[in-house]
Amino acid sequence: MKRTKKEKTYLDSVHLWGRLWSIGALIALLMVPTAICAHFHAWPKFTEIMGPIGKVMLLNWTVAVVEVIAYTPLLGAGGTYLSFVTGNIVNLKLPCGLNAMAKADVKANTEEGEVVSTLAIGASAITTTLVIATGVLLLGPAVSVLKNNPVAKPAFAYVLPALFGALGAGYFRKNVAVSLLTIAVGCIVLLFAPSLGVGTLIFVTIITAIAGALGMFKLGWIK
Amino acid sequence: MTGNGDFKTGGFMYAVAIGIILVVVAESVFFMVKSWKRGKELGLSKETMKNTIFSSALFSIAPAVSILTTVIVLAGALGIVLPWIRLSVIGNLAYETTATKLTLESLDARLSLSTDITDPKTFGAVAWVMTIGTSFALVLLPIVCKTIQNKVGGALNKNEKTSRLGDIISAAAFIGIIAAFVCNAINGRQTKEALTIGDAGFMSVCTLVTAVVLSLILETLCEKKNLKKLEPFAMPISMFAAMGVAVVLNLALPEAVTAFTWWGNVA
Fold first, then answer.
1. Which of B38, B144, B197, B261 to mutate to test the interface with A (most CBs of A within 10 A)?
2. Are A18 and B145 in contact (CB under 8 A)?
3. For position B214, what pLDDT does the model report?
4. Mutate to test the interface with A, among B134, B178, B235 (most CBs of A within 10 A)
5. 3-state DSSP: chain A helix, strand, coil percent, rounded to 5?
6. Fewest Cβ atoms nearer than 10 Å: which of A162, A180, A208, B184?
7. What is d(CA B5, CA A40) in angstroms, rounded to the nearest whole number?
C-alpha cells in the first residue's frame, strides 16, 4: 500500500519522537544506579559486576533482538516505542494492543491500527504504573513487617519455587515436550553438579529449550 | 560500608522512583495525545478512541496486580522501591529476578532473594546489573525500529512460518529461564558457604508442586467455565497460596521433615 505524504509525515514524526524518548528514557534509567551509588557513596568495583552484567547481557540482549524484530510489526511504531520503555510486553502490552485493534476493527500496519495500538498501550502503561504505585504504597510497610516475622519466614525463603512454579505452569502446559526435555536436562546436570548456580544453569536450559523447540518444529511435532 | 537495610526504602529512593514514574507517564501521555490528534484527522470516532483507552485501562488492572507480585518477591532482598522502579520501566518478571539472583550469587554466596541486603554497594551492584542487562532494546529501537517496521515487519507478516518460528524461539527462551529456577527447586544445592535453607528438598518441592498444580487448576477452571476475569489472577493466587502452604507445612510438620533436603538436613 502506497502511503500518502501526510501519513509519511506522521509516521516520521512518531519515529523521531520515539527515538528522542527512547534515548531520554535510557539516560533516566542509567541515572538510577548512578544516583544510588553517588548518594550512598557506594560504588561497586567494575570487576565485581562485570561477570553478572555479562551473563545478563548475553541472556537479555539476545532476547531483546528477537523481541524487537517480532513485536515491532504487531505493535506499530508508537506502540513499540512505548512498550519497550514500559516493559511487560508479552504478558501485557502485546495482548492489550492486539485486543484493542481487534475491538476497533482496525489492522496492524495501517495508520488506524497505529493510532489505536498507541492509545491502548499508553492507557495500559499509565494504568499499570498507577496500580503498582498504589500497591507499593499500601503494601510497603506490610512487606517489611512480614519478611522479618519468624512465622512468615518460610514464605519468603521458598518464594522462588512459588513464583516460577506459578509462572511456568501455563507455559509448561502449552509446551509439554519442550518443558519436560528442558527440566530433565537441567535436573540431570544438577545431579552431577548440584552447586551450579542458576546463572550458569540458565544457559544450559535456554540452549536446551531453543534447540529442542527448533528440532521439534522441524520434525513437525510442534506446529 | 555495611549497615542496616533501611536506606533501601528511604526518602531518597522514593524521590528517584517518582522521577522515573513521571518520565513513563509523560511519554505515555505524549504519544496518546499525538495519536488522538492523528485519529481525529483519520476520521476515527471519539467514541472508538475513548473505548480503546477505557477498555485497555480495565484490561491492564489485573495483569498489573500480577506484576505487583514480582515487586513483593524482590522486596525481600531489595526493599520495595528499587523493584517498583524496575517493574515500572522495561522490567519483566523473569528478567529482573534473574538479574538479582545472578548478581547476589556472584557477589556473595550467602546472599539470596530472601536475604535483606544491608550493604549499599551490593544494592548498587544489583541496580547496575538490572539496568544495563535489560536496556538493550532502548539502544536498538532508535536505530532499527523504522527499518523493521518498513521492511522486516512486512516480510515477517507475509511469511507465516517465519513468524511462527519467532514465536516458538521466544517461548522456548522463556521456558529455558523458568526451567533453570524450577530445576534449582527440584534438586539444586547452594554453594558450601551459602545458607542451607536454599537447598532443594521437601519444602522447595512441595512449594513448587503446589504452585504448578494450583496454577493449572485455576487456568483450566477459567477456560472451562469461561471465567475471563479470574484468568489474570491465576498466577498471583497460585504463588501466594504456595507461599502459604510453605508457612503451614513449616508450622504443622516436625522439623526433621521440613528441614529435609536431598543434600542433608538443614542444621
1. B38
2. yes
3. 95
4. B178
5. 85, 0, 15
6. A180
7. 12
- Is residue B151 over pLDDT 90? no
CA A81 to chain centre: 14
- H or E element: which one contains B204? helix B202-224
Average pLDDT, chain A: 85
The H or E element spanning position B61 is: helix B46-78
ipTM of the modeled complex: 0.75
Cell numbers at residue A203, please?
544457559
Task: Please tell me the distance from the alpha carbon of residue B261 to that of residue A157, in angstroms, as a whole number.
Answer: 14
Quick one: which of B70, B194, B81, B164 has its CA closest to B127?
B81
Running DSSP on this structure, what letter comes out for residue B151?
I
A38 interaction partners in chain B (CB closer than 8 Å): none
Cβ of A13 under 8 Å from any chain B Cβ? Answer: yes
A47 by Cβ neighbours in 10 Å (0-12 / 13-18 / 19+) ranks as exposed
What is the distance, to the nearest Å, from the Cα of residue B65 to the centroid of all Cα atoms in its chain? 11
* Residues of B (226-245) whose Cβ lies below 8 Å from A: 234-236, 238-240, 242-244
Euclidean distance between CA atoms B18 and B137, whole angstroms:
23
Query: Of the ranges A14-23, A79-88, B3-12, B151-160, which one carries the lowest mean pLDDT score?
Result: B151-160
Give the list of residues 6+ apart from residue B248 with CB closer than 8 angstroms, or none: none
Number of Cβ within 10 Å of residue A30's Cβ equals: 15
The least confident of A81-90, B164-173, B222-231 is: B164-173
Burial A195-207 (b: 16+ CB within 10 A, else e): ebbbbebbebbbe
Rounded CA gap, B76 and B117, in Å?
A: 9
Lowest mean pLDDT among B51-60, B63-72, B149-158: B149-158
pLDDT given for residue A108 in this prediction:
73
- Closest-CA residue of A relative to B153 is A73
Cell of A212: 529442542
Rounded-to-integer distance, Cα B133 and Cα A53, Å: 6
Grid cell digits, residue A23: 534515548
